[in-house]
Specification:
Length: 271
């Protein structure tokens, strides 16, 4: 009976895996076909003759866009990890007047939709000369990591108090305790925040369209949108670009998968 149950579970999971992988396989297959054969009926998941020239055309167009996406994702990930970990440690471990009230106010800001302050924010950025620069795409996110701060606070709360007390006995400073003792204990939460931040920055299309006018400052999602016109879409080239954009996402997730899953499961253990 147990064997039947296990077999049924594997069969069901395999079916789900096939359903979720089918679009990815079709995307890669379509990227290797001539434009005239992309929408063939019935759809084919394996190309009979690989058309590698599609990738050559795409890589002639996207190097600058790809670099901009990598740079912005790196700035967002590094900046948010630093700011959120320091803020989360302060809210979890340091005692100061109004700490809990400040944390509640911080969480309350997350219910405000971004579209509500888009126009005032744009006006401010225009007045300080940030329009048509990449600053609006990473500075506001780094300075206001509400969800990441919450995640880090919950993670710091799960670290035993004895570790912090041992650091104080050894004469470590507050920053030394945070950096050398506490931060290494929160690797799962850091990995989860890093993956979430990377995905958000990497897939951001709205921000570059709003704040950037110069083509040399645009990002990869904007480059992919250029393959779509009002009356005609270059599907094979669009699938090439989508394949290129998906590879870093898969690589980042596989690299941080173990810590990512731990971070999601442990951050709600203690409030």
């Amino acid at each position: 009976m147990r064997l039947v149950s296990k077999t049924s579970q594997y069969v069901v999971m395999s079916l789900f895996a096939i359903v979720f992988l089918a679009p990815l396989v079709w995307m890669i297959s379509a990227s290797l076909r001539p434009e005239a054969k992309v929408l063939s009926v019935p759809p084919k998941f394996l190309p009979t003759d690989a058309h590698w020239d599609n990738y050559r055309q795409v890589f002639e167009l996207i190097p600058v866009f790809l670099w901009n996406s990598v740079k912005l994702a790196g700035l967002n990930v590094i900046g948010i990890l630093i700011v959120a970990s320091m803020a989360g440690y302060a809210f979890a471990r340091l005692r100061f007047a109004g700490r809990d009230a400040a944390f509640i106010v911080l969480l309350a800001t997350s219910i405000i939709p971004g579209i509500a302050y888009l126009i005032p924010q744009y006006i401010v950025f225009r007045q300080i000369g940030w329009v048509d620069t990449q600053y609006p795409l990473w500075v506001p996110k780094v300075l206001t990591p509400v969800f990441a701060t919450f995640l880090m606070r919950q993670s710091f709360l799960t670290v035993p108090q004895e570790l912090e007390d041992a650091g104080k006995i050894d004469g470590a400073s507050t920053f030394g305790i945070y950096w050398r003792i506490m931060l290494p204990q929160t690797k799962p939460a850091l990995a989860a925040i890093g993956v979430f931040t990377f995905l958000e920055s990497w897939n951001d299309l709205f921000g570059p369209l709003i704040y950037i006018n110069s083509e040399n400052l645009q990002t990869l999602p904007v480059a992919l949108a250029q393959f779509q016109g009002e009356y005609f879409t270059q599907i094979s080239l669009l699938m090439c670009g989508a394949t290129v954009s998906v590879v870093p996402v898969i690589a980042v997730f596989l690299f941080a998968q173990r810590y990512f899953i731990q971070g999601i499961t442990m951050t709600g253990m203690k409030g």
